[in-house]
Specification:
mainly beta, OB fold (Dihydrolipoamide Acetyltransferase, E2P), Ribosomal protein L2, domain 3, 7-stranded antiparallel beta sheet, 4-stranded antiparallel beta sheet, 2 helices, 17 strands, globular
Length: about 280
């Protein structure tokens, strides 16, 4: 996987880069594993905007990715596909019974490769097993938070977590964010690194490219009127607010922590904020 630059025929192309799609083996998704995806434009069921700057974008179908594969089976990679709904590549796999699934592809998956699931499988790339059977120091992805619920963590392109220790029924993981946290040893994980590791290095380069993704323009609060934003108003000079940054609705932002899930604080060994300015 590498980054592809364009010949600078236009100003936008001078800055724009894109992903190399050599890993992808087909551009036609499996019909039974897709469903229609309606554009919600950031609105909830009452029609109110809950996520700003969303709307438009190209039509796309949702790929039904399985995060909780059946146990004690061998899967064969049939195709590596592009998924417009996530940063990572996905793999179309078939089990011993001829049933197809979509799973997250890792850097080692190629067409024709096989991997296994279950508690007693070998410790090899792409195999999926409980953390209790994975050696300390191994890099893993697609990790469960609750045994049997399916992968919920480390699913983005290029992401990997490292298994640091195992003690008293818990496995300690160093997450991609730098956070060190515990999960139950019975939680399953896949060995390896999520595919498309160069995703974060792609330069958008053109406004229209964002619009095709369904992302509308963002305007700074300081250039708005006072009635539209707490930062707005003034004499038109280029100056800050003189106060802590806020959202359009007056809530503190940019550094104000909004996490209040105290029930799981005991599972975090080291916060990703440690060592940073409070």
């Amino acid at each position: 996987m590498s980054i592809k630059a364009y010949r600078p025929m236009t100003p936008a192309q001078r800055q724009k880069t894109t992903e190399d799609y050599d890993q992808i083996t087909t551009r036609k998704p499996h019909k039974s594993l897709t469903r229609a995806k309606k554009q919600q434009a950031g609105k909830n069921n009452q029609g109110r905007i809950t996520v700003r700057h969303r709307g438009g974008g190209v039509k796309r179908h949702y790929r039904i990715v399985t995060y909780n594969l059946p146990k004690d089976l061998t899967f064969t990679v049939e195709e590596i596909e592009y998924d417009p709904n996530r940063s990572a590549r996905i793999a179309r796999v078939k089990d011993e019974n001829g049933v197809y699934y979509y799973v997250l592809a890792d850097t080692a998956m190629i067409k024709g490769a096989t991997f296994k699931t279950g508690a007693e499988v070998e410790v090899e790339q792409s195999n999926r097993m409980p953390l209790t059977n994975i050696p300390v120091g191994t890099f893993v992805y697609a990790i469960e938070l609750t045994p049997g619920k399916g992968a919920q963590m480390v699913r983005a392109a290029g992401a990997q977590a490292q298994l640091m220790a195992k003690e008293d029924g818990y496995a300690t993981l160093r997450m991609p964010s730098g956070e060190v946290r515990k999960v139950l040893e019975g939680c399953e994980a896949s060995i390896g690194t999520v595919s498309n590791i160069q995703h974060q290095n792609v330069k958008i380069g053109a406004a229209g490219r964002k619009r095709r993704k369904g992302i509308r323009p963002t305007v700074r609060g300081v250039v708005m009127n006072a009635t539209d934003h707490p930062h707005g108003g003034g004499d038109g000079g280029r100056h800050g607010t003189g106060k802590a940054p806020r959202t359009p609705w007056g809530q503190l932002t940019l550094g104000y922590r909004t996490r209040h899930n105290k029930k799981t604080n005991k599972m975090i060994v080291r916060s990703r904020h440690e060592g940073k300015r409070k």
